[in-house]
Specification:
rod-shaped
Length: 165
């Protein structure tokens, strides 16, 4: 009998295919390669889940509340103008009965949601409401700062005041 030798480029299979629960799962190298693929898929999936969470919850840690900032800015400017004597202190009494405006602004935020178009629209609506409240307060408190308002605005606000009486 002749001595049969295997070709030099073909390595003998040192480890037979393994069977798990009756299924052949392949050699050690195949299992190692499959495990590496699973790890990569798991990492990609984990990164995708993390990106999705960040996309859904970005406003909690990336962006301030523009409407809340606008309200604080308006209150700060009004207090500063009160201090300089440009707005009478009874401005606050004049707008005190307009507290439901806060509920309206919150409702606008809830209706339009957290999408960019909704946030921009909610900001514009809140800005208009806040400017209207400030103008109303300036006119009703007979503040010297009311002279900056147009006569049409003053007449309209006085008409609203007469209708409420």
């Amino acid at each position: 009998m002749e001595n049969q030798q295997e070709p030099a480029d073909k390595k003998p299979n040192s480890e037979p295919n393994v069977r798990v629960f009756g299924e052949e799962v392949g050699s050690h190298e195949e299992r190692k390669e499959r495990r590496h693929e699973w790890k990569e898929k798991w990492k990609e999936g984990r990164q995708a889940r993390r990106d999705e969470w960040r996309h859904r919850h970005w406003h909690h840690y990336h962006d301030g509340d523009a409407i809340g900032g606008l309200i604080l800015l308006a209150v700060g400017v009004i207090l500063l103008l009160n201090t300089f004597g440009l707005i009478a202190w009874d401005f606050w009494a004049a707008i005190s009965h307009l507290w439901p405006v806060i509920l309206i602004i919150i409702g606008v935020r809830v209706i339009f949601g957290w999408t960019w178009p909704g946030r921009i629209l909610a900001f514009i609506v809140a800005l208009i409401i806040i400017l209207g409240v400030v103008a109303y307060g300036l006119i009703q408190s007979n503040s010297p700062a009311a002279r900056w308002l147009s006569p049409e605005t003053v007449n309209m606000m006085n008409g609203l005041n007469q209708a409420n009486r």
